[in-house]
């Protein structure tokens, strides 16, 4: 593809001021990041986790901060350690529990500390560890009324207790053994190998109080509630406790066919250890469960298993704990509810769902009726319900707002509350956010977000970058540090973020339009969105690029095989050979439901796999992949890179030996953006290639 007649830089913007956090990548990666939210039982304290760079600027460290629920006092920091702290949760007495691998000040010996459960007293003072396990603590749950605790921790097969577990781990290490013998599928998940240790659920009970004389409390004795948990997935990672601490509700992964899995709900009596299945649906995964305030009922998500003909569908179930009777709470609701929980009185359920490019908060009465949307713009998460019913709290973000804590009315509609004072607020962004709508070839409406840089005008139109989301069953609706369009806007690019067919939040039929036909409606929807955006005089139709990651990387590859309209393609963690991908990803059974067995039903592979159309690629391509990516294995990136090189397509390969599906370390994240910007500058702006210094 021809290049501009003369090299030209992007239009100057206020972001060129070195003081703006998006002007330099080193400043951008140093912006504090809010994640995680917990509300105290009395409703007077909010705890959030805030990630900041460590002193060497090599990793992000989470610390816990307190936020005033009334918004009157500034936030204050609660914890500070080199390993950091995460997963805050208040106990019934107001103490704050969290996970950390910080060293125990009272411990002796030089062993590297594992992640443990710590407690910070309600009236301040020093935090102390309360639950430890060989291999570390992976998660925990707290009984709302009693403060009793269960923890999730891995255990070696056959280990009788913690001492035996540690002995077996040490024996493997001393013998130099890293091998894992698998007897069932799957064998890994995202970026982690499964086994030989698997998650178990342990009863910790009431945690010991601080000794008035300052003596360390007795160690907590753990009791295994799931002694029969075995490979490949053990007792699972997701648990919740009934308010009175009598029952543990966990997600249990069970076989579904020769190499498939599905999730069901299992109740465990914390006193006797006896378990019983609460919900087991052979046609669906059941997950995301929460108890009612009185513990008599459970609300959960039912996600239908996909088939060759049908995508998943979601609804909320209310389940009677005593009888197991199940009732559909959201029949006919044409959105996908998630993260449900009961209101303070137990007469309503709050949940989140994608809706028209937003991730909104809904309320539905337990007695029935249509769900009511309570929020306008933004994407909500980490919902917390005040126990007196006076308020809701959540984190809210949008494409022009990083996550921040907010207070909400439990019943009012049309809400968009101001953030509570917190660390991590940004200065004005280098541009503006707009909404664009297009009409697809079949008449469907395609919604998009458009980030427009400052200075763009009809006289000086901005180059346009099409960013395609992953999933594919998701939508652009919230702030992203990994895919932050403002980094590009600070350099003069406009960024288009469309929600094409397969995106959720636009109804079941909108998803069906692209089911099993990724190269069909998703592609034509993207092109329709680009065409609609380029009708604006402040965008330059001659200087465009396309990029995406995961499914978005698949689509970037597909775009490269179908059109020459873009000057550059950036493809991250992308699917290239669908047959190869399905056989090597961490959960092949999930994708084969949609695509079929390639030896029996090859049609969708032949029609939709980008590698079959490699000869058509003329556009320069930047390939990016991490070696620890088990969701889209590195072989996809290697094969794509080889196919481009042998065809003489201008291309580069940014390879991360120690990153996974994402790029999680600050240095590599900065290099990622730096390389993408250099590639776009070369091919979109016509500038000379500038190889990033550190690669």
Automatic annotation (TrEMBL):
Ranges for domain Peptidase S9 prolyl oligopeptidase catalytic: 479-684
UniProt KW keywords: Aminopeptidase, Hydrolase, Protease, Signal
Keyword Hydrolase: yes
Gene3D superfamilies: alpha/beta hydrolase (3.40.50.1820), TolB, C-terminal domain (2.120.10.30)
Name of the featured protein: Dipeptidyl aminopeptidase/acylaminoacyl peptidase
A GO MF term: aminopeptidase activity
Protein family membership: Belongs to the peptidase S9C family.
Hydrolase listed as a keyword: yes
Annotated stretches, region: Disordered: 1-21, 209-241
Organism field: Geodermatophilus telluris
Biological-process GO terms, alphabetical: proteolysis
InterPro entries with a match to the protein in the record: 6-blade_b-propeller_TolB-like, AB_hydrolase_fold, Peptidase_S9_cat
Domain of life: Bacteria
